[in-house]
Amino acid sequence: MKAPYGSWKSPITSDLIVAESIGIGGQIFHLGKLYWVEVRPQEGGRQVLVQRDSKGEEKDINPAPFNIRTRVHEYGGGSWLLHENSVYFSNFSDQQIYQQYFDQAQPTQLTHQPGLRFADGVIDADRHRIIYVVEDHTAEDQEAENKLCAVDLETGEVTILTDGHDFFASPTLSPDGSKLAWITWDHPHMPWDETLLWQASIGEDGQLLNSEKVSGGDNEGEKISIQQPRYSPSGELYFVSDESGWWNIYRLRQGVQTNLHKLEAEFGQPHWIFGQCNYQFLNEEKIICTYGVKNVSKLATLDLATGDLQDIALPYTDISDLSVQTHGSQQVVFLGASATEFAGIVMLELASGTTQVIKQSITLQLDEGYLSVPETLEFPAADGGTAHAFFYPPANRDYESPDDERPPLIVMLHGGPTGATSNALSLKTQYWTSRGFALLDVNYRGSTGYGREYRDKLLGKWGIVDVQDTVSGCNYLGDKNLVDMERLAIRGGSAGGYTTLCALTFTDTFKAGASHFGVSDLEALAKDTHKFESRYLDSIVGAYPEELEVYRQRSPIHHVDQLSSACIFFQGLEDKVVPPNQAETMVEALKEKGLPVAYVPFEGEQHGFRRAENIKRCLDLELYFYSRIFGFTSADQIEPVEIMNLPENA
Predict the structure, then answer these.
(1) Which among 36, 42, 563 has a CA at the least distance from the CA of 320?
(2) What angle do CA 338, 313, 420 make, to 5 degrees?
(3) How far apart are CA 507 and CA 522, in angstroms?
(4) CB–CB of 487/630 below 8 Å?
(5) 530-570: per-residue pLDDT in tens?
(6) Contact at 8 Å (CB) between 270 and 192?
């Protein structure tokens, strides 16, 4: 059937996406069983720990309304840990630690410390305590204080072990319990800029003795980012460092650091959340690890004596969160996805090489006739270098387009901005391509996955190089006659929303945009955001308030006179990262300028939408908005939103 691009009827509906999709992750073996956490949009985004036994039977551990989620750094992660026959978890509503026995119906509250938040815990069994990263919000009108603390498993008493730095992460105990290692960093650095690795002995009273910085920081003018410290079975300290320009695995032995396998690849990722795991010890001689080359993942073993890296042949191109089962047959579980397979928990039998998908985020069997498989693109950047993206052409077996028509293009921008996108299969991407849109998913300069030099291209240049690369990517596709250059849209959330608004303001490339909780005023963001990101802009924009003029020059809100494009805004009203006034101010400016604009606020949502009904509404209204701006009739029945300043004949 011939029909205009954008108007194709697709079986991948917003109802299907929210009904089929759950978030999964954190999978770990414990006492012969497998555990993971599910994020369920149908339960308002509640996070639930699931147990799977050796027979394959599953059961939920924490009952409603308990929600396993910490707000440390606002992005969370590391919100639960297992010990003996129970789980200790941070409950979202009060941020306190609860203990839930696997054979009991209700959890018991352990801590009673309003204002304290807990994350990234490690069990110190010998001393009957958990060592946590603690974020203290008890002091009014002051920045939260971060520290490492011990929580007594009987009384819930909280004892400070060490403080004095702005941020802490990754406390890890040696196998004999005698040493503790951890990561710190301080304003204005972010954890991918510069971190310090510390190690200390633990005294008889449980306090830390002889704390010593053992790696990281500033090495002769070169900043080093350390992450994921971990002790080997014999008690040697390993970690991931980007000293070589890439996040590689290192060992500390008798004060000497060794890069075990120097490779232009990333064995780590930006520390946005706690609890990331790119490697685990199989035994004293070998590590299982995942690494990425140009944001395509591989799973491998690393010989600790020879440094030999052996890839394991797998169909997955996006691999994370490793856990090892050493009892009985040696097994590894990880979160795996590819361009043709949705993210799922995969179990690998190392001896045989066989895999089994334990749980998928989406169980839908998608007909390949509706599936767009991405092409990996490298295209010229404005500085003469190279930028990266994944390109998805339209795909729907039921339709073909008029001979003289090229598809509209949606440019998709990841958050961060120090983040990255992969080619993992996503229903939200296929939602667009199956309706006749082409999609360009950009890893602009500054994205992770391409080494430190590429990542540092964004330093001082946020709002410039990211915008340049989105425009360059569009021009690259236009030169190949793959897209309609008169129907370009750009969309992004958070930092991607900022790049979206900058592209709409400072270029004339795009006709429409969608900002999902995006930044419009850098000065407001610098003055009104949470601690973790409160100095982020120092590195990617400039010191505030010393370089106030730069902030204003790059803030779309101060340059609405340059806007000539339509935009729709989606905003959570409880967002502490990018508060609602950012979107509301921009909407009013567009409204006064006479440009088509729509505003969709969501009660109860924070930075990123978790409720099924709101995820559905976002997808549908963005499609409706593009249909009105680009002049096609959508095949979907969508309850419209008011588009202010839309011409009557549009």
Answers:
(1) 36
(2) 35
(3) 18
(4) yes
(5) 899 999 999 999 999 999 999 999 999 999 889 889 999 99
(6) yes
Q: Cβ distance 550 to 462 under 8 Å?
A: no
Distance CA 441, CA 631 (A): 24
β partners of residue 34:
29, 52
3-state helix, strand and coil shares in percent for the chain, rounded to the nearest 5: 20, 35, 45
* Residue 329 φ then ψ, to 5°: -70, 140
* Three-state SS at 621: helix
Please name which of 31, 35, 33, 125 lies closest in space to residue 321, comparing C-alpha atoms.
35
SS3 31: coil
Radius of gyration of the chain (CA): 25
* Residue 401 scores a pLDDT above 90: no
Residue 256 burial (CB < 10 Å; 0-12/13-18/19+)?
exposed
- pLDDT value, residue 649: 59
Work out the end-to-end distance of the chain between its first and last CA atoms, rounded to an integer number of angstroms. 25
For the CA atoms of 134, 137, 142, 148, the dihedral, rounded to the nearest 10 degrees, stands at -10
Residue carrying structure tokens 């992750």: 25
- Cα separation, 410 vs 392, whole angstroms: 10
CA distance 459 to 444: 13
List C-alpha distances in Å: 453 to 210, 222, 449, 459. 35, 12, 11, 10
Could you tell me the strand order of the sheet in which 116-124 lies?
116-124, 129-136, 145-152, 158-162
Determine the distance from the C-alpha atom of residue 477 to the mean position of all C-alpha atoms in its chain, rounded to a whole number: 27
**pLDDT (0 to 100) of residue 607:** 83
Q: Which helix (H) or strand (E) holds 496?
A: helix 495-506
Torsion of Cα atoms, 265 then 270 then 276 then 280, to 10°:
30
DSSP 215-283: EEEEETTEEE-EEEEEE-TTS-EEEEE-TTSS-EEEEEETTEEEESS--SSBS----SSB---SEEESS
- The alpha carbon of residue 152 and the mean position of all alpha carbons in its chain are separated, in whole angstroms, by 32
| Residues 76 and 608 sit within 8 Å (Cβ to Cβ) | no
Gap between the Cα atoms of 463 and 191, Å rounded: 21
Lowest mean pLDDT among 282-286, 607-611, 639-643: 607-611
pLDDT band at residue 650 under the 50/70/90 scheme: low
CA distance 184 to 47: 28
Task: Please report the pLDDT score of residue 19 as a whole number.
Answer: 82
pLDDT-derived band of residue 328, with 50, 70 and 90 as boundaries?
A: low
- Is a pLDDT exceeding 90 seen at residue 333? yes
Give the CA distances from residue 222 to residues 40, 309, 453, 632, in Å, rounded to whole numbers and listed in that order. 43, 27, 12, 53
Amino acid, res. 280 = Q
Q: Cα(128)–Cα(434) distance, rounded to whole angstroms?
A: 55
Buried b (16+ CB within 10 A) or exposed e, 486-514: ebbbbbbbbbbbbbbbbbbbbbebbbbbb
Q: What is the 3-state secondary structure (H, E, C) of 521-580?
A: CHHHHHHCCCHHHCCHHHHHCCCCCCCHHHHHHCCHHHHHHHCCCEEEEEEECCCCCCCH
- Per residue in 91-122, pLDDT (tens digit) is 999 999 999 999 999 999 999 999 999 999 99
558 exposure class (CB count in 10 Å sphere: 0-12, 13-18, 19+): middle
With cut-offs at 50, 70 and 90, classify the pLDDT of residue 329.
Answer: low
| Residues 455 and 443: beta-carbon distance below 8 Å | no
265 with 291: CB under 8 angstroms? yes
Three-class DSSP category at 71:
coil
